[in-house]
């Protein structure tokens, strides 16, 4: 379990507490500046909160050495960067850095990650020659190659067209199906409503709602947090937002 | 990674003995060595060649590490301000007149490099941010440059001024085994430190946030970089003056033959840098030039500046 206890980050988070479960897809939603990325960074151990703590299976993240933390928590930043034009396989191999395992073990993990994301045909292709969707999958493969127990991704669907958004969500759902905890910052409320098991809504650094998508993104919550009068149309799993 | 290293090692093994033959006095490898040729080889050419290899290796490795750290193919070891710091130390040894006494010149240069390293780490603070660190390095380089200009303009004698200006041009002329013993431990230790930074540099390929999520300690990486670049560049400047552009150029020659990870670039860049400086110094010796030989620092700048322009134009094309 990944738990946050009364997290405080001056100007960004004001006492957020959460218990996240493995095997679930959790979406963190909220208006701009609500503290979504800050919360994800705290959960990933990248930012130390001014008060409160994040624990992984009861152990405070601060007590784990950085490589042990990295082996457990995979993090995909909001604007992923690849400074050098490496191949997809080399990029995925960077996910193995915290492991310090043999080349054979690293290679097996990289191949498994590429397989999981339908990328074996692209293994030797330079990152600069990938389309947006292929690049997003390659970046996710980098995280999966590290075989983390938790995947924390900050707006992984941004800049992807609908087909690639659904494809990537399918891959993330498969990760959760294998027992991984998947935590996503999402701006698209319809995607959160239809694809997450649980939604956490932040508003001005506090927890505004937390629960199944139907409850956490209920129409009164949308009005209260986003200030928008909107209605959900359609049946569960295929909902669309009418404003 | 092993293939480029093997090829570069083979090229260096071939170039090193060949370079010993070239110079104002050409040595015939088929003829028996006379006492004069033996002296030239043992006391002039061999230490000079070894020094060229050490200097080039240090500059090449630190260039590769700097480009990896700053995630910028135009980065150069000079950006940290350590080379100008070392040069300022050396200039002060000329200015005070101590340069002619024993080990004072390299000692002053190393103190200058250490001062720049200390200042850099103090200014950059504990956060380990790359941008602040680079700006701090550029500020130190500017300050050291200004102080060098001040020292030159206030030279106690025209002779000291001439010595400073000539030394700043960078050269391996008339260097002896003494310089080799100064540069060798510093350069080799520096390359080892930079190689140890390789994993961190690989992680930084993904940006600072992702690198930290992979367990990178940015402060430790910064310390390794400062120490590695300080030892290699500081040691190089202490014995040969400022030799520019090697650290900028060499990683570009090597990168296409590796998988692109910065850690795979450090040792091949060290070997390629050694080869480049060895060949360039050899050409400096044999090029006919009125009034002496071409200074190595000038020769490499004449090569490096057009190369830098070529890189800029290529980047401009990629950005369009």
Task: Provide a descriptive summary of the structure in words.
The complex is a heterodimer of chains A (243) and B (320). Chain A has 243 residues and is an alpha/beta fold. Chain A has a single domain, classed as P-loop containing nucleotide triphosphate hydrolases (Rossmann fold, 3-Layer(aba) Sandwich). Helices cover 35% and strands 25% of the residues of chain A. Chain A contains nine helices and twelve strands. Chain A has a six-stranded mixed β-sheet with strand order 6-7-8-3-9-10, sandwiched between helices. In chain A, strands 2-1-4-5 form a four-stranded antiparallel β-sheet, with helices on one face. In chain A, strand 9 and strand 10 form a beta hairpin. Chain A is globular, with a radius of gyration of 18 Å. Chain A starts with a strand and ends with a strand. Chain B has 320 residues and is mainly alpha-helical. Chain B has a single domain, classed as ABC transporter involved in vitamin B12 uptake, BtuC (Orthogonal Bundle), CATH 1.10.3470.10. Chain B has 13 helices and no strands. In chain B, helix 3 runs parallel beside helix 5. The longest helix of chain B has 36 residues. The radius of gyration of chain B is 20 Å and the shape is globular. In chain B, 51% of the residues are buried. The model of chain B has no long low-confidence stretch (mean pLDDT 89). Chains A and B meet through helix 2 and strand 6 of A and helix 8 and helix 9 of B.
**Measured on Cα atoms, how large is the radius of gyration of chain A?**
18 Å
CATH topology of chain A: Rossmann fold
**Which CATH class of chain B?**
Mainly Alpha
Shape of chain A: globular
Count, helices of chain B: 13
Mean of the pLDDT scores of chain B? 89
Looking at the overall shape, the CATH architecture of chain A is 3-Layer(aba) Sandwich
Strand segment tally of chain B: 0
The appropriate CATH architecture of chain B is: Orthogonal Bundle
Beta-strand content of chain B: under 5%
Name the CATH class of chain A: Alpha Beta
Oligomer designation: heterodimer
**Overall mean pLDDT of chain A:** 94
Number of domains of chain B: 1
């Amino acid at each position: 379990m990944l738990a946050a206890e009364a997290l405080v980050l001056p100007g960004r988070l004001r006492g957020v507490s959460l218990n996240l479960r493995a095997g679930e897809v959790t979406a963190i939603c909220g208006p701009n500046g609500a503290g979504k990325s800050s919360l994800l960074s705290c959960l990933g151990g990248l930012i130390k909160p001014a008060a409160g703590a994040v624990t992984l299976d009861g152990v405070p993240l601060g007590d784990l050495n950085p490589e042990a933390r990295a082996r457990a928590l995979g993090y995909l930043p909001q604007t992923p960067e690849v400074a050098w034009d490496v191949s997809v396989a080399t990029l995925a191999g960077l996910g193995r850095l915290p492991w310090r395992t043999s080349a054979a073990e690293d290679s097996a993990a990289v191949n498994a990650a590429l397989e999981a994301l339908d990328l074996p045909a692209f293994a030797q292709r330079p990152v600069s020659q990938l389309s947006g969707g292929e690049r997003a999958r390659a970046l996710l493969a980098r995280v999966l190659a590290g075989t983390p127990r938790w995947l924390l991704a900050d707006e992984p669907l941004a800049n992807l067209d609908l087909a690639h958004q659904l494809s990537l969500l399918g891959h993330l759902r498969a990760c959760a199906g294998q027992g991984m905890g998947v935590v996503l910052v999402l701006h698209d409320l319809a995607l959160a409503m239809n694809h997450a098991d649980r939604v956490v809504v932040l508003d001005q650094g506090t927890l505004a709602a937390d629960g199944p998508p139907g409850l956490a993104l209920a129409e009164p919550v949308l009005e209260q947090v986003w200030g928008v009068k909107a209605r959900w149309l359609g049946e569960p799993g295929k909902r669309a937002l009418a404003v | 990674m092993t293939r480029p290293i093997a090829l570069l090692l083979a090229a260096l093994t071939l170039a090193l003995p060949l370079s010993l033959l070239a110079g104002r006095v050409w040595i015939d490898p088929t003829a028996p060595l006379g006492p004069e040729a033996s002296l030239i080889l043992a006391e002039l050419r061999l230490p000079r060649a070894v020094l060229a290899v050490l200097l080039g290796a240090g500059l090449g490795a630190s260039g590769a590490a700097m480009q990896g750290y700053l995630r910028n193919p135009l980065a150069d070891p000079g950006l940290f301000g350590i080379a100008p710091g070392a040069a300022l130390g050396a200039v002060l040894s000329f200015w005070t007149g101590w340069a002619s006494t024993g080990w004072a010149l390299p000692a002053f240069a190393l103190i200058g490099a250490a001062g720049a390293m200390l200042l850099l780490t103090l200014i950059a603070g504990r956060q380990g941010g790359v941008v602040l660190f680079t700006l701090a390095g550029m500020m130190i380089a500017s300050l050291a440059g200004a102080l060098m200009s001040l020292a030159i303009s206030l030279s106690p004698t025209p002779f000291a001024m001439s010595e400073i200006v000539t030394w700043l041009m960078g050269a391996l002329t008339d260097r002896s085994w003494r310089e080799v013993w100064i540069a060798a431990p510093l350069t080799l230790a520096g390359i080892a430190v930079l190689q140890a930074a390789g994993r961190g540099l690989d992680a930084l390929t993904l940006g600072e946030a992702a690198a930290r999520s992979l367990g990178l300690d940015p402060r430790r990486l910064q310390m390794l970089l400062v120490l590695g670049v300080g030892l290699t560049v500081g040691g190089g400047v202490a014995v040969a003056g400022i030799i520019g552009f090697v650290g900028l150029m060499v990683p570009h020659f090597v990168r296409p033959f590796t998988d692109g990870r910065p850690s795979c670039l450090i040792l091949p860049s060290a070997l390629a840098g050694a080869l480049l400086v060895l060949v360039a110094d050899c050409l400096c010796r044999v090029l006919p030039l009125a009034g002496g030989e071409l200074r190595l620092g000038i020769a490499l700048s004449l090569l490096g500046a057009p190369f830098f322009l070529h890189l800029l134009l290529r980047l401009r094309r990629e950005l369009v």
